[in-house]
Amino acid sequence: MLSRLALPPGSRLLVLGGSGGVGLFLLQLAARGELITFALGRPAMHELMRALGASHCVDYTAGHVAEQAIELADGPVDAIAALIGGPHLAGAFGALRPGGQIAAIATPDFGLDPLIDANVTFHGILIGDDGQRTRRLAARLADGSLRPVISHELPLAEAAQAHRILETGHPGGKIVLTVPG
Question: Are 178 and 158 in contact (CB under 8 A)?
């Protein structure tokens, strides 16, 4: 997502889903790229998001996301990284500057007209890994420059419970299933 956006250091990035398992990795990588990030998440996750690189936190439970982001950024952001689907991108779209960029992993709940009218570049992201990306991330995990956040560790026999936790939309990190023996 960050490579597709190719934002220069100092760019302002609104991260929808910043408190999720993937979002917490993205915040760390964005901080390494010297991006100014506005991470969307519930208040219970704000301290962790800041510790992992978020410049500012946006509370989606406290009102209009776009207005909060614009206020925190002192103006519109340069790009939006949408790690969550549904209506969330539509609600945050007003925070994006004309000519900005959006990278999303899911189809937005609005048509193309707003994108065209604002001259926005939209990147649909579907990862087709060739192994190199996984090796680079594994090396960063091994050397400690990228930190995983594990919210739950469950035995493999409780995989159904892991899915129930994921379905809440608020796992707070990665869920690890342990294999006996």
Answer: no
Query: Alpha-carbon Rg of the chain, whole angstroms?
Result: 17
- Buried/exposed code over 67-78 (b: 16+ C-beta within 10 A; e: otherwise): ebbbebbeebbb
How many helical (H) and strand (E) elements, i.e. helices and strands, does the chain have? Answer: 8, 8
Q: Which of 8-12, 18-22, 52-56 has the lowest mean pLDDT?
A: 18-22
How many Å apart are CA 110 and CA 96, to the nearest integer? Answer: 15
Is the pLDDT confidence value at 141 over 80?
A: yes
Phi then psi for residue 161, to 5 deg, are: -65, -40
Q: CA 68 from chain center: how many Å?
A: 17
As a whole number of angstroms, the distance between CA 172 and CA 118 comes to 33
Q: Is 177 helix (H, G, I), strand (E, B) or coil?
A: strand
For residue 45, report the phi and psi dihedrals to the nearest 5 degrees: -100, -5
What's the pLDDT at 84? 87
Residues near 181 by Cβ (< 8 Å), separated by ≥ 6? none
Q: What is the pTM of this model?
A: 0.88
Determine the pLDDT at residue 115. 86
